[in-house]
Structure prediction request, 314 residues.
Amino acid sequence: MEKVKTLIIGSGPAGYTAAIYAARADLKPVLYEGTQPGGQLTITTDVDNFPGYHEGKKGSEIMEDLKKQAQRFGSDIRIGMIVEADFSKRPFVCKTDEGKMIEAETVIISTGASARWLGIESEKEYNGYGVSACATCDGFFYRGKTVAVIGGGDTATEEAQYLSKLCKKVYLIHRRDELRASKVMQKRVFNTPNIEMVWNSVPIEIVGEQKGFSKAVTGVKIQNVQTNETSTIAIDGIFIAIGHSPNTAIFKGQIDLDEQGYIKTTPGSTHTNIPGVFAAGDVQDPHYRQAITAAGTGCMAALDVERFLASLED
Ligand code: NAP
Prediction:
């Protein structure tokens, strides 16, 4: 069994920032990157609001910078996942996807959040055949075509904006009559001629057809939530952008979560209900969910670990 002082689970801005601070504090952090090294920022386009990058920068490049910075101070950053965690006693025991056992004096959870799905049957049926949750990953396949984006937040408006540059037409379908997105994003969407808003509507079925050995989306059936009327919009692809769920499945029953599954932390700190286990970033933040707030809590988590370990020596 490998013994480590500080195990960091997850590699978004929270995880890497925690690693920078923990390494500088000589906590010899070991960080497991998880399924999406670099986290959600790696599948976004230009990031204009991360302080310091005054001309904007690709999300993936910002994450590469953060990773290199963490490595410069000696963080041990590893490809792989933590698949099991036992927080019943300290040191905590965690298992990787390769079956390796790690005994950690302290743990920082920074596993982030993942895209949410509508939960309708046809969404599963056409996933990968016209249904996607990532415009920057899959938008390329819809050049010159017509697509729909579902949602009304910053993600949906950003995806619609991105797709409008590649596609002939983008329908932005939202369940209310006003967007949740920031004013600047709303303005961009309303000023883009090939984005058409479809208000007060929810998708009830994704329509498609068999194409040889494959299949393809041909439309989305929507229902107006005010009139209950249904109609079908012809599209070639659909992007679901309705928010995120925290990645806390492996911690269920081990650590206090709120009703949405976010890790509960003591306000103003990164302490969870288990002494020695800390949480940072989107996994504990249903409110702000910004790269910079995640990085901020990553810093806090490393400082909290340092103080926790020091308090044991007192
Ligand atoms: P969000 O703000 O939670 O928005 C989710 C949107 O999806 C809402 O408009 C919501 O409708 C809609 N929705 C939720 N469930 C739905 C369902 N079952 N059917 C249809 N529509 C549904 O999520 P987000 O847009 O992913 O943003 C998350 C956070 O990241 C936010 O804090 C955002 O500011 C941030 N973010 C920032 C940037 C940036 O600064 N560059 C980019 C992306 C995201 P209602 O409005 O009716 O609830």
Q: What stands out?
A: The mean pLDDT is 95. The chain is about 25% helix and 30% strand. The chain has two domains: 2-114+244-313, 117-240. Residues 49, 118, 150-156, 158, 175-176, 180, 202, 242-244, 289 surround NAP (CB under 6 Å).
